[in-house]
Design a protein that fits this description.
7-stranded mixed sheet, 3 domains, alpha/beta, two-stranded antiparallel ribbon, 46% helix, D-Maltodextrin-Binding Protein, domain 2, Arc Repressor Mutant, subunit A
């Protein structure tokens, strides 16, 4: 059986980014934390941490961190049920999830708000591109994620949520600059015009260029604007062309128009909710809320 104190030390090191901060958090000496980690590694017969300037978990450490978080959630569920029976105050439970920015700014939060209002649940949200959120689940940093990956990792379930539809848009003046005399947008003119990209891990614009212009990893100037409102403002003000979801376009309040670079040429991105097969009751509530909220996406 695994030692709870050793697991607590591992979680503290990973969650606080180092041995020193973990020792302070646990009210232990640095050597005591180190000894607990070494004892855990001896028990398992393998390393759980990669020690360096930045401490990170090995695959074994990632699995243990995910296990620790699941145990914490189950304990929190038990405490909640006890406090409900005794009439005591609510015992708040935090659930860490990874969500892409477009989902977070459109359907995700409104969809789960009712569940959060009815139960003592707190969300700890990590934002990343939908192609990379799964890494946070794999590393044990979150207990669930919205991802484009269709295949679940061992011990998890991947449930289809629907499809996000993206269109390449820009201001009317910018799109006109990308057109030839015949009125058609050409790849040469488009690539000579800056793109507005959410962050450096965002691959939607490359997917659009591959699907509709048959270009593989072309070079073009880019603005990086990692905030949804600012991203929309950059597109509307003519800074460049970029990929915007149908949900974002439908909800726009900015009077400045956005038009499609190639009318009717959408990029379809299927989304999946990845979560552990053995979930706590609180995590199950969140899963049901997410699945219900995602119906707005359609198939």
């Amino acid at each position: 059986m695994l030692d709870a104190r050793q697991l607590e030390a591992l979680a503290a090191v990973l969650e606080h980014g180092g041995f020193g901060t973990a020792a302070t958090t646990l009210n232990l000496t640095l050597s005591a934390v180190s000894l607990r980690i070494k004892a855990l590694e001896t028990t398992l017969g393998q390393r759980v941490l990669v020690r360096g300037k930045v401490v990170r978990a090995t695959p074994a450490g990632q699995s243990l961190l995910a296990h620790i978080k699941q145990v914490r959630m189950m304990e929190a569920d038990l405490l909640e049920s006890r406090t409900q029976r005794s009439g005591a105050g609510a015992h708040w439970q935090s659930l860490s999830v990874a969500v892409n920015a477009d989902s977070l700014s459109s359907w995700f939060l409104p969809g789960v708000a009712g569940t959060l209002a009815r139960h003592p649940l707190l969300l700890d949200i990590m934002i990343d591109d939908q192609e990379h959120t799964h890494e946070a689940l794999k590393s044990g940093d979150v207990v669930a994620c919205v991802s484009t990956q269709a295949t679940a990792m061992r011990g998890c379930v991947a449930e289809p949520l629907g499809v996000m539809r993206y269109r390449c848009v820009g201001s009317p003046a910018l799109v006109q600059k990308c057109q030839s005399r015949s009125g058609a947008v050409t790849a040469h003119r488009l690539l000579a015009t800056p793109a507005v990209i959410f962050n450096r891990r965002d691959g939607l614009q490359d997917l659009f260029l591959a699907q509709h212009f048959h270009l593989q990893a072309p070079q073009y100037p880019r603005h990086h604007v990692p905030a949804v409102d600012a991203f929309e403002s950059a597109l509307a003000s003519g800074m460049g062309w970029g990929m915007a979801s149908d949900l974002l376009l439908a909800a726009r309040r900015d009077p400045l128009p956005l038009v499609e670079v190639l009318p009717g040429s959408a990029v379809y991105v299927p989304l999946y909710w990845h979560h552990w097969a053995r979930e706590s009751a609180s995590a199950q509530r969140l899963t049901q809320a997410v699945k219900a909220a995602a119906k707005i996406l359609g198939a």
